[in-house]
Amino acid sequence: MSDQIQNKEIENELENSPPIDSVESDEIKKKRRWRPTRRGFLIGAGATGAALALGIPLGKPYVHLYMAEMIDSGEGGTFGASTSEPNLWFEVADDSRIQLFIPQVEMGQGVHTSITQSAADELDVDWDVIEVVQAGTDNGPFETITGGSTSVSGTFIPLRTAAATLKHLFLIEAARMLDQPMDALQISGRGVALVSDAATRVDFAELAANESMWEVPEDEIALKDPSEFRYIGKPVKRVDIPAKVTGQAVYGYDARLPGMLYGAIARPPTLDAKMVDAQKLDAESMPGVKAIIIDIEDGFVGVAATSRAKARAAIAAMQIDWDEGRLWQQADVDAMVVPEGDGGTDIQRLGNVEQALEDSNTIFSADYRTPFAVHTPLEPQAALADLSGDKLHVWITTQDAGGTRTTLAEALGLEKENITVSPTYVGGGFGRKLGTPGAIAAARLSREAGVPVHIGWDRPEAMRYGYFRPPTHSKLQAALDPSGRIAAWDHKQGSGNVAYDFLPKFLSAVMGSDLGAWRGARINYEVPDNRTTAWRKTLPARTGWWRALGLLANTFAVESFVDELAHAAAADPLQFRLDHMPDNEWGQRMGAVLQAAADKADWGGPLPAGHARGIACNTDVGTVVAQVAEISLDEQSGKITVHKITCAMECGRTINPDGAAAQVEGSVMWGVGSTLIEQMQIKDGQVDLDNFNTYPLLTMKEAPDVETILLEGDGTPRGVGEPPMGPVAAAIGNALFTLTGTRVRDLPMTPERVLDALA
Amino acid sequence: MKLRINGEVHEVEDDPSGMLLWAIRDELGMTGTKFGCGAGICGACTVHVNGKAQRSCVTPLVTVEDAEIRTIEGLAPDEITLHPVQKAFIDHQTPQCGWCMSGQIMHAAAFLEENPTPSDDEIVAAMGNNYCRCGCYVRIKSAVTQAAEEMANAASVPSKVSA
């Protein structure tokens, strides 16, 4: 959506909004007040009185907060519901620092820092002049999420435009106050000063005091030329890290209010279970128990008590009867995911692949499969709810503050306007915290108990009662032409739901396939006859968002099979890929990262005995990635050791190179864990795990070295938090083939599987 | 019962089945020590008990009544000086989401007291039982390596950073 269209929509919305004064109350009086400008900004008074605020309503808002302070002060927050509020804005504080309120949550991806970089550059201020503040739903309409590697790319231009405009306004006002021409002035410290005499100055707070007379200019404010960037593209230190090494960062599991209780809820014994009956028995008289809810219709039994252990003990002491439903087994799921039968949707088609395969003497075929996996952010789901009368405030570890508010409004029968969701630091999201049902349970118990209630899931709850990375099954067929090029390519892809289950019903009804599930499934190589068909399957265990969605599974299938074809053509796997690059921008970008990764990893060069390399690449959210894995194998045990992943990435423009490298490193670890270790199965109607003893994660012992090469692209920033996960499994599997002549086409490549394949 | 944490005595409920983690977090409100698994596997809850790294989620209260307990809030020697491990974790920009980091840092600090000159393999062996779901292992390793060097230097030249 272009900014112009977006702004037009905002103006229309503003016209339909009631004047802000019409909802005036003592509470509202203290709120920020906004008036729209012709160019789509919102300008007005900040929360601290005279302070100026300048903001932008983004088409796709995002979020986070200042939770420790609010909790300490016991402040309930205010309740803004008008669409005439921005999602991202600046405020000038009394000490002339500039607060940047941003909606995106900080979950380790460094978004609070990279957004500050863009703002500081266009404002032309020193780094410490800006203070990042996490915004919550009381500050704006949060209809979107932090996820999909879009936080930085989606805000790059609008944020910079707002910052440049604010700077321009400062200069206009300073020119008036100092009676100087604008071009004799510059930003200096926390204010504006004469270029020729820094002592002749006026601070931001003094400038902002005159905000009511300001007019936002109608002309386009020029953004900085990239050659003038002071922060963008530089390895800036993350703003959230000091609090994270001293234990001061406050996450949802850490949220506290005076007099709070702790909640626990009953959990179904199977995936299909329905609650039939529940009896309190002696639970009510157990020590510390303050409130019990039994709602058979909703399948909800909850207890609020003075400690988590006491709440759980009361749940355990109750008699709860369940109808277990069908006892699903893994074999049922495996059969459902096979990509065949009705319901396949072509997501890519060129030429006539059936004919091309028929005309070929040799058809290559292979099946690649990946299992269910669990997100397991180390901070489990957690929420603190304070419901008083018809007003609710929730502090929560979430990637979706707006969605949480909507869900709460429906579940509790409250007006959205009366609900404030304050997102905290998020102790790992990875897609799992796009769904945050714990908030509802905490709010119900708070209503019943009359005091704030915190619910923090234990590890077995976090493992079992959410949604999972879906299992996948890819069936591939291809043919080579006499010159050894790929002549035909057919990819049938089956997957459990990813996005489907989370979309509005009307949308999912018309959507034949699941764009989340087939992320990465289409090929970008030049193949004259090709087809990719996707089958979407609703499985007995709910499946959904997972870091990079289908990218890892699909890249594993596509890039492993390309490797098979390269070996069949007796070609070097790197050269084979380069030879199939289309002659377009994508082909050039992918070729560049492939070559960069190969060069850095000394592709074709000598290796220690028993080591081998594999290469793979992919494209995702506009970013291109290539990786070389170096592995060895213990032939006795079947254990693969990944020594090193060399990763070249080009994401258009890198805002924070060190932060981008950290995202590559993290993505690689996720990829290696998925390749070697992680899997979940269904057994007797339940998932077959409950803690890290049954679902171990990758540790430093298995972690490879990671070398990252960042290439600069066209200057437009694109996502970095997910794309580098894509090639990992294929690169490792391709290295294993080079080492042993054997392919393992099922993830994870456990020692047992490797030994089976070698036998 | 009384607990001695970061040099101060605190009163907590005398719960015979209670675990140290929840007394620290929920009763005393010191939330820097994190919950990860409740089974002593992931290490997010690591604190020092009499100078040794210990997993507070599986540490019964009754076993630490007379012990000297240290949490992440009490690791830095004073309000303006960070512990060398904390400093190294900033220098290497180690944390991502940060949830495991208190445990990583507390484990590393205790380990380096025991082994001030660790080899690479010893660092991996020592830190290899603390999970980081964000996958910050490359930087945890480099930060612990730096901290070891700084602590060794500080030990040879007395300074307040070594406190």
Give an account of the 3D structure.
The complex is a heterodimer of chains A (759) and B (163). The model of chain A is unreliable at 1-30 and 58-83 (pLDDT under 50). In chain A, 54% of the residues are buried. The two termini of chain A are 55 Å apart. With 759 residues, chain A is α+β, with helices and mostly antiparallel strands. In chain A, helix 4 packs parallel to helix 5, helix 11 crosses helix 12 and helix 15 (551-568) runs parallel beside helix 19 (728-740). Chain A has a seven-stranded mixed β-sheet. In chain A, strands 1-2-3-4-5-6 form a six-stranded mixed β-sheet. Chain A has a five-stranded mixed β-sheet with strand order 15-23-22-21-16, sandwiched between helices. Chain A is 29% helix and 23% strand. In chain A, strand 22, helix 14 and strand 23 form a beta-alpha-beta unit. Chain A has two domains: 3-237, Aldehyde Oxidoreductase, domain 4, CATH 3.30.365; 339-372 and 468-758, 2-Layer Sandwich (Aldehyde Oxidoreductase, domain 4), CATH 3.30.365.10. The longest helix of chain A has 28 residues, at 151-178. Chain B has 163 residues and is an alpha+beta fold. In chain B, helix 2 (84-91) crosses helix 5 and helix 4 (120-127) packs across helix 5 (137-156). Chain B is globular. Residues 159-163 of chain B have low confidence and may be disordered. Chains A and B meet through helix 7 and helix 18 of A and helix 1, helix 2, helix 3, helix 4 and helix 5 of B.
